[in-house]
């Protein structure tokens, strides 16, 4: 008997989002509506050539300049051998304006408790799948419940070559009024 086919992490996350009623969709096709996200995808792919994923050091200020307002870098921090949580290492000004500046804070310190599993599942999918994801979201959290967004989410290696970081690039827009 052969090995089972690997599960696409974007597909698995999208199925979980549907089952749980989470307000986002996920795919691995990486065909973005926002041109800047296609540019970010292309940059990540070029930097990932011939290696597991780009490193955090590959994304210096010069490379990030076109996207810096919309960038977030999230770090997976171990609690023990089987559990972890996520800390915001960098949040661009567009993100900070929309949701507040949470640099240095863990998700559970500022997100509503019921929102933490969906954010964690998204970052887990990127790291454990080792590939970028495309997300579209209709935000329901206070302060941004009037916004929707499209995001590029991808894993990054730390200084030791381990996938422990996630880079995100998100663009917000007002939600459409119901027809």
Mean pLDDT: 88
CATH arch. level architecture: 2-Layer Sandwich
What is the tally of beta strands?
Answer: 6
N→C terminal distance: 52 Å
Q: Can you put this structure into words, describing what you see?
A:
The chain is an alpha+beta fold and 179 residues long. The protein has one domain: PAS domain (Beta-Lactamase, 2-Layer Sandwich), CATH 3.30.450. It has 6 helices and 6 strands. It has helices at 9-20, 35-48, 61-64, 93-99, 107-110, 116-129; strands spanning 24-27, 71-78, 84-91, 133-138, 147-157, 163-174. A 6-stranded antiparallel beta sheet has the order 1-4-5-6-2-3, with helices on both faces. A hairpin with an 8-residue loop joins strand 4 and strand 5 (147-157). Helix 1 packs antiparallel against helix 6 (116-129). It is globular, with a radius of gyration of 16 Å. The chain starts with 8 loop residues before the first helix and ends in a 5-residue tail after the last strand. The model has no long low-confidence stretch (mean pLDDT 88).
């Amino acid at each position: 008997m052969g090995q089972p086919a690997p599960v696409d992490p974007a597909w698995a996350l999208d199925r979980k989002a549907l089952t749980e009623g989470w307000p986002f969709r996920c795919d691995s096709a990486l065909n973005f509506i926002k041109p800047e996200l296609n540019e970010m995808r292309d940059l990540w792919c070029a930097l990932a050539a011939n290696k597991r994923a780009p490193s955090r050091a590959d994304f210096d200020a010069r490379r990030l300049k076109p996207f810096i307002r919309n960038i977030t870098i999230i770090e997976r921090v171990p609690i023990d051998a089987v559990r972890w949580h996520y800390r915001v290492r960098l949040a661009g000004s567009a993100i900070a304006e929309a949701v507040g500046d949470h640099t240095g804070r863990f998700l559970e310190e500022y997100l509503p408790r019921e929102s933490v599993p969906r954010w964690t599942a998204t970052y887990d999918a990127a790291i454990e799948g080792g590939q970028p994801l495309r997300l579209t979201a209709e935000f329901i959290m206070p302060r941004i419940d009037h916004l929707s967004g499209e995001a590029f989410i991808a894993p990054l290696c730390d200084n030791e070559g381990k996938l422990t970081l996630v880079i995100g690039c998100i663009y917000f827009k007002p939600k459409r009024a119901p027809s």
